[in-house]
Design goal:
The protein has 627 residues and is of the alpha/beta class. 46% of the residues lie in helices and 12% in strands. The strands form 4 sheets. The chain has an 8-stranded mixed beta sheet with strand order 6-5-7-2-8-10-3-11. A 5-stranded antiparallel beta sheet has the order 14-15-16-17-18, with helices on one face. The relative contact order is 0.13.
Length: 627
Amino acid sequence: MLRAIVPWVLPGNSIWLGPLLLGFLAVNGITRAVLALMNSESLVASPFSTLLSFGIGFLFDLTVLSVGASGFVAVFCLLPQGRLRLMRWAIGVVSIPFALCLAFTALSEVVFWNEFSTRFNFIAVDYLVFRTEVIGNVRESYNLPAIFGVLALLAGVLWLSFLLQLKRIQTGEQDFRHRLLAATLWPLIATGLLLASNASWKQFSNDSRINELAGNGYYDFVHAFFHNEIDYEQFYATRNMADPKAFQHEVQAEKNPRKRHVLLVSVESLSAAFLGSYGASSNLTPYLDAFSQESLRFTQFYATGTRTVRGLEAISMGIVPTPGHAIVRRPAARGLQTLGQILSDHGWQSVYLYGGYSYFDSMKDFFGSNGYEVVDRQVLRPEQISHETIWGVADEDLFAQSLREMDRRANKGQAVFMHIMTTSNHRPFTYPEGRIDIPSKTGREGAVKYSDYAIGKWLEAVKKQPWYKDSIIIILADHTHLGRGKAELPPSNYHIPLFIHAPGLITPGTFDAISSQIDLAPTLLGLLRLPYSSRFFGQDAFKDGTRNQRAYFANQQTVGLYRDGKVVELYPNRKIRVVDAKTNAVLDPTDRAQEVLIEEAIRSYQNASFAFKNGLLKRPLTEASKS
């Protein structure tokens, strides 16, 4: 039957493209099957949904295939026919790079899924921008000879299969009208499929990983390229805004300001689940667990996203995570109100200290244009670096530099705010040998334990400094080590540690209310008793946190609100879903309790998106900023 259909679909010389087109469909189907096996938990729990994802995925595959091939089919149909040997030779040569492309993309999808549990998204697009770091990370994290070997093997098998199929092809002399019809229909069908297709086709299941199986890597990559920043009002549920400036307010100082140094450490990918003080039994964080006894530990503290830039956005700007890229990565992210800017206005030296190259993820541009002095690995001399990866120097080297920076600045008698961003707890998970009992490059647990070691040694050194007694030390994570889970926005995938330590100011203990990274800036400023014109969406946890417990999450294009054991999920195409945070059961959105949460979620994200788009997050011209 297939042999009878193919000449009508691919008449004349266009039949030579048949093996390549079938190969494209086969490779994408096999890739989907491999990802399904990697997602075996969902496969076993929801076999029907998994099967349905293959059907939806096939539609995406056909869309990409028709768009990519229609032009070639049309040309081959209209070219002079015949020349059997020449066509066989030409397609055989062209199939070499085609096989390499298919094999490379399939292998890349498997690696990307292993890291993020998702198809290509705007993270993959970012990887094209920061090729140096990404290529370096791959080189340091994986066995490249083995990867290239697998790539060559896959491409070789594909190419040989193409050659075998090409040998069997015999072209007939279809009349010109038949070939002209095919040359016309292919582009029309491709256009129709492209216009009809929608990324929301994937959102058919309660299991986000099954939804991702339904995607196509090529389609998703192009979609992510054009949707890095999404207009909230155009794509998400909205309501009439009573006052778009309502979030702006004046914070008055109740007493005299506290002029203390602030050392804020955001640790790369440190999930609360790794820490003994949060219930872990693996003993990976003895230093932080000891530090928790000397600090106020936030037991239900949540990151806003799954990437470093999201954490930096929340910590510095106190804003909910709007869809698409974090504001740190957006072109208009200058002249904004930030934690560092407010402290600078009140006489602090605000410093952002990063273990890597600060041009990565636009950190230098964002922090440098919003009230911070940026210091990165480039200030370290070779003898000051004990170990480095493409992402940055070892955490111990970064912390040693922080002490040098603090001594130099504190000795001038000026208060210092230093935000330190670590890098060691990141693939390839390498660090100096001999520091801990887990060998370097053996996995995430070793990197976590090394980061804890570096923090512990740094804390020991800090406590010996003359400026320590006048300091506030804050340690938290930028995000967890987890990506997408079975649920779209599972709270456990955003649960991170937060410790606030201030000798003579903060009583050690626990703070048990649900709170968010966006609350850190107003909480710290409240602790310092500073007046300011707030542009924050977060709240002072010590004043309002107990009566207003909530957190905000984002995962690519899905944003949500976590409150009262429920998660409100807002999707493009104005889709809304409310789920039980523990069971992932979908709740009735028309129930009054859910309606209240939905209104709050929409209001928060709509206002934040409007505020950024219309310049309402800009630094206010206070008297302090004029001086």
